[in-house]
């Protein structure tokens, strides 16, 4: 079960299509954040959902 905080902004990862929420460490760079994880960033291309 995923617990989301409704007051935090969310984006959708272009690689895995999963939603991900704002994190404190991304506070200064939130407009530039594209991927939900390092794994997706390395993959860098939309593909089938990975587990």
Automatic annotation (TrEMBL):
InterPro entries xrefs: UCP037205
One matching Pfam family: DUF2256
PANTHER family the record matches: DUF2256 DOMAIN-CONTAINING PROTEIN, GSL3115 PROTEIN
Protein name: DUF2256 domain-containing protein
Phylogenetic placement of the source organism: Bacteria, Pseudomonadati, Pseudomonadota, Gammaproteobacteria, Chromatiales
